[in-house]
Amino acid sequence: MKNNISLETNRDLLKIYTYYRLLLAGILLALSTSVSGQGLVGGTAPLLFVTVASLYTCVNLIILLALIHSDFTSTVQHTFIVIVTDIIALAFLMHSSGGIASGLGVLIIISVAAASIFLPNQLATFLAAIASTVVIAESYYSSAVLHSDMASVFKSGILGMLLFATSLIFQNLSKRIYTSNLIASQNAAAAARLEQLNHHIVQRMRTGIIVVSYDYHIKVMNESAAQLLNMPYETTTPLQKTLPDIVKTHLQNWKKDRYIKLSPLKAGETLPTFLVNFSQLDDSDISYTLIFLEETAHITQHAQQLKLASLGRLTASIAHEIRNPLGAISHAAQLMKESETLEDADRRLTDIIQNHCLRMNQVVENVLQLSRRTRSNPQIIILQEWLPSFIEDYIATVSDIPEITLDMPLAPLPIKIDPSQLSQVLTNLVDNGLRYSEINTGKPTILLQGRLNRQSETSYLDIIDEGLGISEDALPHLFEPFYTTEKTGTGLGLYICKELCEANQARLDYKFNSDDKSCFRINFVHPDRSIDNLQNMV
């Protein structure tokens, strides 16, 4: 059987045991040399007692210095030699003090008990046998050679039995302690691994997790929560942060009414919207509160699926009902316009009819395009490599060549999106940007600027034009379907762009950039953190 305790623990316990031995040797040596100690120890052979006690003290001091030295490693052999030395030294001290009657033989029990703790069971039993043999031999020698009382042999036999019993009892206790320590160590290691796994899971979760105290100090926060709240992510513990006011207000309202309906939150103009939920760990007033921040993107995607499915069924049922009469009206207007007897006022009315027919036909085409859209097929592409080919294809489709400037960093910007749907979004945004730039400056110009968000490690693309920008009144309705500020617009262009971005887990926002220019920003999902299982189109 192997040693019951680890080498490091063995070394520490052996050091404590050596302190005891050194103290014991010093006390015995002091008793042998003091006047008050005459007759107590060393009475039979004082010189032998002093000599053995002095050597025993020196040996223990040397062993203690060796154990204190950090490079010394105690082994089974070292421990065995130390215990044997104890037994022999204590036997000589007992002999020089009058044998078994002196009572010093009881000290050998402590050495045997220590051997049962430090050494394997076989060696511990062997040392108990050695100690018993030494004690019985000393008693027999004293009786036969020195003519002492023969009763000491019987007493030494009793002591020998006690030595064996002590060895067996301490071996059993040591085994139980070792087993308990082993189980505790295994449980501690399993708990540490589980804690590490839980920490890794929490940190990698897309749902934001925050644990706050009763005074709104953050104790735990994962990276997703830091990104949603636009806070720097820290791994140090404890966190030196307090809960932001937008979440704190919701938490205070929730504590007053657990059934209150909480509205979605947004920590910044270009940050995603998220829902917040709370769970108190216990019912005390100073309990921690667990806060879940869940981005509404996947909820929006699911709602989009239902919406597009309903829209598809609706448009399929009414497309012919609208387009056939619309085509008949447009054709009738064309025939009327070709009439030579038609007056100018009536001809003007036919122009109005045709223009509105074309506009309504465009609305139907956009709705059908939206409802018939195929399932998105996201791919990982490098933005710097994809945009030049898009610009080349776009310029080839227009009559007047616009000025499209590309501003990209040297480091690659990987994104995950359906290239065809990204092309459709950019075509719409670039069309609008060039048109408004030309209205404001007389020149169709636009800037495509890509960057990397260092905090979230996600890429984004800014479409910056020279137009006057969106008014504050129109901004809340910018991405609503059928909302438009132009007389000839259908109000579906930006709505479709936003729907396509959300179908690819991207986010389309409008803002004025640092140069106070009108800017549409597409925030792309991290290529390695996209929700591959969520399909956004029917």
Which band does the percent of strand residues land in? 5-15%
Weakly predicted, low-confidence segments: 533-538
Radius of gyration: 45 Å
| Strand/helix succession | HHHHHHEEHHEEHHEHEEHEEHEE
Output the number of helix runs. Answer: 13
Number of strands: 11
Structural class: alpha+beta
Largest sheet: 5 strands, mixed
Q: Note the overall shape.
A: rod-shaped
Report the mean per-residue pLDDT as an integer.
Answer: 80
Helix content: 55-70%
What would you say this structure looks like, in words?
By secondary structure, this protein is α+β, with helices and mostly antiparallel strands. The protein has four domains: 7-189; 205-295, 2-Layer Sandwich (Beta-Lactamase); 300-371; 379-523, Heat Shock Protein 90 (2-Layer Sandwich), CATH 3.30.565. Helices cover 55% and strands 12% of the residues. The chain has 13 helices and eleven strands. It has helices at residues 7-33, 46-68, 76-96, 106-118, 121-144, 151-204, 223-228, 245-256, 297-337, 344-371, 383-395, 419-441, 493-503; strands at 208-212, 218-221, 274-280, 289-295, 379-382, 403-407, 414-417, 445-453, 458-465, 507-512, 518-523. The strands form three sheets. The protein has a five-stranded mixed beta sheet with strand order 6-8-9-11-10. The longest helix is centred in the N-terminal third of the chain and has 54 residues, at 151-204. The chain is rod-shaped and about 160 Å long. The protein starts with 6 loop residues before the first helix and ends in a 15-residue tail after the last strand.
